[in-house]
Design a protein that fits this description.
It contains two helices and six strands, in the order ββββαββα. The protein has a six-stranded mixed beta sheet. 11% of the residues lie in helices and 58% in strands. The chain starts with a strand and ends with a helix. It is globular. The model has no long low-confidence stretch (mean pLDDT 84). The chain is mainly β. A hairpin with a 5-residue loop joins strand 5 (68-80) and strand 6 (86-98).
């Protein structure tokens, strides 16, 4: 069962460098991994994909550790590690990506 919801979320920080990719029709998109803090203090990995040109541009300018906010369709999932322990993860199709102005000027 997959639940898709239109939501917005503030992310603690980005992890790694977002990647520019193209689909089989050569349309550009960006993928990124970020982490969000849960209410219990643990962090949840968030897989982000953006197709909108403005959202892609904001992602392209992020560096590791930048704070970011996302608006889009969220799909909660469960990831099973090697010890067969379940962990939450979110997949997000970001329609809007926001960062503080000093991060966007890089």
């Amino acid at each position: 069962l997959s639940i898709r919801r239109q939501r917005q979320m503030c992310i603690r920080d980005s992890t790694g460098t977002p990647e520019h990719r193209s689909d089989r029709n050569r349309r550009p998109f960006m993928v990124a991994r970020v982490r969000s803090e849960a209410s219990d203090g643990t962090s949840i990995p968030v897989n982000v994909v953006a197709f909108d040109a403005q959202a892609c541009e904001v992602l392209r300018n992020l560096i590791e550790g930048d704070a970011v906010a996302l608006r889009g369709s969220f799909t909660p999932k469960v990831w099973i590690d090697r010890q067969e322990q379940p962990h939450p993860v979110l997949d997000v199709v970001a329609h809007q990506v926001m960062a503080t102005p000093e991060f966007q000027d890089r």
